[in-house]
Amino acid sequence: MYTVKKVGIESSEQLLYLWTETFKQAYQDIHSPENLHAYCIKNYSKENALAVLSSNQFNCTVAYNKKQPVGYYLLNYQPCPTPLDGASSELKQIYILANEYGKGLGKLLFKHAVNTIQQLGYQWLWLCVSDSNYRAQQFYKKLAFEPLAPGPIIDVGTDRLASTIMTLNIKQ
């Protein structure tokens, strides 16, 4: 049903669309439309998409349903800010469109990301999740991520959110 493909700069418009739509859908019950808009304007521009997609620091992989982009993950090859016993990489983002919730796409993208990181020899996958994004927290807990430390404050317009760094040992 889904196809998954690592993308480059040719997909900057798709990434920009997925960034804004999935973020708004994930947080529409938490933040005002004005704060969501402010966050997207600040963080999700075509220039940012091109910078991410042209950098070796990132891996952006998009999921398609009948050639339509419906979700993505973004790996950032940087170590966890809290030291871990072994090499780590960040699962910077994993989002899917709301109409794809409950269909297994999130788990498919997650497994693909883990496989990618394992092939590169990393032992740990880490991420920051907003303390107010309960859906994401439950998703990561089901996948055996464990809270490690407080994460950075996330500004969404005028809202300030606490976050948590979570980790998963992926060594086989």
Low-confidence stretches: none
Rg measurement, Å: 15 Å
**How many H/I helical runs?**
5
Structural class, by secondary structure, is alpha+beta
Order of helices and strands: EHHHEEEHEHEEEE
Going across the biggest sheet, name each strand in turn: 1-2-3-4-5-9-6
Q: Give the proportion of residues in helices.
A: 25-40%
E-strand count: 9
Report on this structure:
The protein has 172 residues and is of the alpha+beta class. Helices cover 34% and strands 33% of the residues. The protein has helices at residues 12-27, 33-43, 46-53, 105-119, 134-142, and strands spanning 2-6, 58-65, 68-76, 88-96, 124-130, 146-150, 154-156, 159-161, 163-169. It has a seven-stranded mixed beta sheet with strand order 1-2-3-4-5-9-6, with helices on both faces. Strand 2 and strand 3 form a beta hairpin.
What are the main properties of this structure?
172 residues, 5 helices, single chain, seven-stranded mixed sheet, 9 strands, alpha+beta
Task: Summarize the model shown.
By secondary structure, the chain is of the alpha+beta class.
List the helices and strands and how they pair.
Elements: E1 2-6, H1 12-27, H2 33-43, H3 46-53, E2 58-65, E3 68-76, E4 88-96, H4 105-119, E5 124-130, H5 134-142, E6 146-150, E7 154-156, E8 159-161, E9 163-169
Parallel strand pairs: 4-5
Antiparallel strand pairs: 1-2, 2-3, 3-4, 5-9, 6-9, 7-8
Helix pairs in contact: 1-2, 1-3
